[in-house]
């Protein structure tokens, strides 16, 4: 587990993670807004069968759930990379070898 030694390092890491989280949030927000917009302005479309007998409402809803899981995995992957980079930087600054 990475332990941040300096306040600046912790702030930098937190800022990178926060920025990534906000970007992924807005990507998901746009996807969800599309679902809501269809429901509000073209609700008839939601009853059209699109995937193996599922209507658009169910397919889109399941897709949103799966997309949220994928975004969570992406977030975890990049945050882990940020932590690893911080660990390597810390080791380099201490003069250790990785």
TrEMBL record:
Organism of this sequence: Sphingobacterium alkalisoli
Superkingdom of the organism of origin: Bacteria
Keywords (A to Z) from UniProt: Membrane, Transmembrane, Transmembrane helix
Entry's transmembrane regions: 20-41, 53-78
The protein's name: DUF485 domain-containing protein
């Amino acid at each position: 587990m990475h332990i941040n030694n300096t306040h600046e390092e912790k702030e930098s890491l937190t800022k990178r993670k926060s920025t990534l989280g906000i970007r992924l949030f807005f990507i998901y927000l746009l996807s969800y807004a599309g679902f809501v917009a269809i429901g509000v302005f073209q609700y008839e479309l939601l009853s059209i069968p699109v995937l193996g007998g599922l209507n658009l409402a169910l397919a889109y809803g399941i897709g949103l759930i799966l997309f949220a899981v994928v975004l969570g995995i992406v977030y975890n992957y990049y945050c882990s990379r940020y932590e690893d980079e911080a660990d390597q930087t810390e080791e380099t600054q201490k003069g250790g070898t990785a």
